[in-house]
Specification:
The complex is a heterotrimer of chains A (275), B (261) and C (261). Chain A is an alpha/beta fold and 275 residues long. In chain A, 33% of the residues lie in helices and 22% in strands. Chain A has a domain at 2-75 and 153-262: P-loop containing nucleotide triphosphate hydrolases (Rossmann fold). In chain A, the strands form two sheets. Chain A has a six-stranded mixed β-sheet with strand order 6-7-8-3-9-10, with helices on both faces. Chain A has a four-stranded antiparallel β-sheet with strand order 2-1-4-5, with helices on one face. In chain A, helix 3 crosses helix 4 (137-150) and helix 6 packs across helix 8. The longest helix of chain A is centred in the C-terminal third of the chain and has 19 residues, at 236-254. The relative contact order of chain A is 0.17. The radius of gyration of chain C is 23 Å and the shape is globular. In chain C, 42% of the residues are buried. Classes of the chains: A alpha/beta (275), B mainly alpha (261), C mainly alpha (261). At the B-C interface, helix 1, helix 4, helix 5, helix 6 and helix 8 of B face helix 1, helix 4, helix 5, helix 6 and helix 9 of C.
């Protein structure tokens, strides 16, 4: 359904150029939950923006259902990591979810129903007339997800969406997104630095190298569904997969100089604030 | 000193200091007994006689009209020009030399020219003069506000397929609004000054005109009353603006208080 | 199509933009869209300016205005910065004087012109007083803001290490306030120039403003425009200078927050 072919992105030119991405290729099947992990600073966000059509890759192409992506396609919705700068603080939750629907041709009643339905599926009906900043971080991210759902996309891109949220809320949100995938049948491309999270959620995990970034390995995850925060994580298969991905990334980290590898390892829970 | 006593002292000071200053003013002018510096009590009486409300319609209303119209034009033009300039680096490149020159020009230097060019000292000349110079704080703040918008807002709007006009209306303008409003506040106090200057220089009506006339006739009572009026007008306009701003930007305060740094 | 913006292109656009505006001016005036009586052509104005520049009188006036600006700004700084530091570092003092400051701030110094004219007359003192009065308030407010807007974490850290009150002031609060003071100086600088010029234009103090008034009274349009142009250049020079100084002071400041523009 979605295909990236040899995506490369170079910033600047000449000797000082930064090769953020170099020949990243993979495909996403219809209805699949694909996670993308990699060491910090490996250009995951750049990759996502190229796929979403917000950035033009220097080389390579992105194909959605066989057609090249030049600008954000109608079928695609994006959920950003920093909800406080993605949800419009001057609008209520209702109007935030309504925003992407305004230019779609449908009646006011249809729009309102979509908004209310999507807020209900993330469990925020009670807060529909609040302002986003009046809600907790986890709730704000749920609003962002509701907004994406109301847009009725066939593919959802998520850029480390749960990184700015505390660990317990993160578990709830992970289960929410799995439920949403089952309920709506959408394809999800999920970028994260949290290895446990990637294995827990995914059908397949794409592991990236450090900069200049390519695909190191694509790891199939055949854990049973529905997933459970406790049961699934106790399975030996989960432990193996997790270890495998961790080792892949650790090798990436130690492949660079010792100073650089002192960076925070990818699977340390991130309780920090978004940059 | 414990907390309670400290707070009580602070509130007392907030009341006592202004009162003491006013009393001091009255006492000093009584002691001076000069025609040029009439007592505060005399000024207040003159103020009541002239401005409440016999000359109000003749002079205060035209002045307020000029401020209002000049300010409104400056706001409309400042935002309408500022948004495209904020969004386009090319546009800025071409226009910034001129903007920088005119914003640095001391407005009074253009007073005589405004009269010569427009062949009048009437409302058109006054409003044009006020509007022209009040444009710049708003224009510059709008440009800065637009340029400073977090790219994630714009990315979000783009990813949901919002067209340029829609983006401007629903994302760019609200996001830049706090900065624009700051510029508007500066512009408003500038408008009062421009009004006084243009009326004092040449006019047949208005508060500045009264100031000029009382100076020419050495009428100190009305002169000080006019100065007091200008101060009061400036204060009230600023107050009104702050109240409006508080309502308009309530969301901004809430958001800044809770957003991750 | 994305054009590459580099230094050369920027310089080119800058020059072209100014050239185009000057050409436009020339055309408008020469073809009579605006009569040459009202708007002398660009070439006439520059020629007049050139001949004026060669007279001693021009430069004397220039220096007189600069003198008024500098002294007004200096007096304002000498008063506003210490008082601002005092009021900013003491919550008690700040709230005690809050009301008087809020009332006196919005008074346009322009309103004081008649008083100064009738008391101090056309002396340097009145020009300096006017300029200093106007420049004082924005500088005071910015200084207070800067001293108060210190990072509370830095202060708490110092306090926990037993750093005394006075030392906290000059080690943490003052360095943190410098960018705000620099911004205040930039704003005050502009205000001081405007008011120095105003004193010259309205009261006849010697300087560029007085030359403008003279030219207007005697119908010498070419001179009027030439002097206005020259004043614009002075304003630009002062603005660029204070902006550069402000930028240097801001460069090392970790926070990106600025006071009102």
């Amino acid at each position: 359904m979605l295909e990236t072919r040899s995506i490369a992105k170079i910033y600047g030119s000449g000797p000082k150029a930064t090769h953020a991405l170099e020949a990243v290729s993979f495909t996403v099947a219809d209805g699949e939950f694909l996670c993308v992990v990699g060491p910090s600073g490996c250009g995951k966000t750049t990759l996502l923006k190229c796929i979403a059509g917000l950035l033009r890759p220097t080389a390579g192409e992105v194909l959605l259902r066989g057609k090249r992506v030049f600008e954000p396609p109608d079928e695609l919705a994006l959920v950003f990591q920093d909800y406080s700068r993605s949800l419009m603080p001057w609008s209520t939750v209702r109007n935030n979810v309504l925003l992407p629907l305004r230019h779609k041709s449908m009646t006011g009643t249809e729009r309102r129903k979509l908004v209310e339905d999507s807020l209900e599926s993330v469990g925020l009906t009670r807060f529909i007339d609040h302002f986003p900043w009046q809600l907790s971080g986890g709730m704000q991210q749920r609003v962002a997800i509701a907004r994406a759902l109301a847009y009725q996309p066939s593919i959802l891109l998520m850029d480390e969406p749960f990184a700015s949220v505390d660990a317990q809320t993160r578990g709830d949100l992970e289960d929410l997104i799995l439920r949403v995938r089952d309920e709506y049948g959408i394809t999800i491309l999920f970028v994260t630095h949290d290895i446990d999270e990637s294995v827990y959620l995914a059908d397949r995990v794409v592991v990236l190298t450090h900069s200049p970034t390519t695909v190191k390995e694509i790891v199939p995850v055949q854990l049973p569904r529905p997933r459970d925060q406790i049961a699934t994580k106790e399975l030996p298969e989960f432990v193996n997969l997790r270890g495998h991905v961790y080792r892949l990334i650790k090798r990436e980290l130690t492949a660079v100089t010792p100073v650089e590898s002192e960076e925070v390892s990818p699977d340390v829970p991130n309780t920090g604030t978004p940059v | 000193m414990n907390r309670r006593a400290y707070l009580a002292a602070r509130i007392a000071a907030e009341i006592i200091v202004p009162v003491a200053l006013l009393a001091g003013w009255q006492l000093w002018t009584m002691h001076l007994d000069s025609q040029k510096f009439p007592r505060l009590s005399t000024i207040l009486v003159e103020f009541k006689d002239i401005w409440l409300f016999s000359e109000f319609g003749t002079h205060v209303v035209p002045s307020l009209e000029r401020i209002g119209l000049g300010f409104a034009i400056a706001v409309a033009a400042g935002i309408a020009l500022g948004i495209p300039l904020g969004l386009s680096r090319w546009a800025r490149l071409w226009t910034m030399p001129h903007i920088e020159y005119w914003r640095a020009m001391p407005p009074p230097a253009l007073l005589p020219i405004s009269i010569v060019l427009l062949h009048s000292i009437g409302n058109v000349q006054k409003v044009s003069f006020i509007a022209f110079f009040c444009l710049f704080p708003i224009l510059l703040n709008t440009i800065d506000g637009v340029r400073g918008i977090d790219p994630t807002f714009v990315d979000t709007a783009r990813s949901y397929g919002l067209g340029t006009l829609e983006r401007i209306r629903r994302v760019v303008l609200p996001a830049a609004l706090p900065q624009i409003v700051a510029g508007m506040r500066n512009s408003l106090s500038l408008a009062v000054i421009m009004m006084v200057l243009s009326e004092y220089f040449s006019s047949t009506s208005g508060v500045g005109y009264v100031l000029l006339i009382s100076k020419n006739t050495f009428d100190f009572g009305p002169m000080w009353a006019a100065i007091l009026l200008i101060g009061v007008l400036g204060y009230l306009l600023n107050l009104l603006f702050v109240l409006a701003e508080r309502r308009l930007l309530a969301w901004h305060r809430g958001w800044r208080a809770t957003a991750p740094v | 199509m994305r054009l590459r913006l580099n230094r050369l292109t920027e310089a080119l656009v800058f020059a072209l933009s100014i050239a185009a505006a000057l050409a436009f001016w020339e055309v408008i005036s020469r073809t009579g869209v605006i009569s040459q009586k009202d708007l002398p052509s660009m070439s006439t104005t520059f020629r007049e300016l050139w001949s004026l520049v060669q007279t001693g009188g021009f430069w004397v006036a220039y220096v007189q205005t600069v003198r008024g600006w500098a002294l007004g700004l200096g007096v304002a700084a000498v008063l506003a910065i210490p008082i601002g530091i005092l009021l900013g570092s003491s919550d008690f003092a700040a709230s005690a004087f809050r009301v008087p400051i809020e009332f006196l701030r919005p008074i346009p110094s322009a309103a004081l012109i008649p008083v100064l004219f009738l008391t101090l007359g056309t002396t340097l003192k009145s020009e300096i007083f006017l300029a200093a009065f106007g420049a004082f308030w924005p500088l005071l407010v910015q200084t207070m803001y800067g001293v108060r807007d210190v990072d509370p974490v830095a202060l708490d850290t110092a306090r926990s290490f037993g750093v005394g009150r006075v030392e906290r002031l000059y080690r943490i609060k003052l360095p943190s306030a410098v960018p705000y003071i620099a911004t205040g100086m930039r704003i005050a600088s502009g205000v001081s120039l405007i008011l120095a010029f105003t004193a010259e234009l309205f009261m006849g103090n010697p300087g560029l403003g007085q030359k403008v008034n003279f030219a207007q009274s005697f119908g010498l349009e070419n001179q009027l425009y030439a002097y206005a142009l020259a004043t614009g250049f002075l304003g630009l020079a002062i603005h660029l200078f204070s902006t550069a100084a402000e930028r240097r002071a801001l460069r090392w400041h970790p926070s990106q927050r600025l006071g009102a523009a």
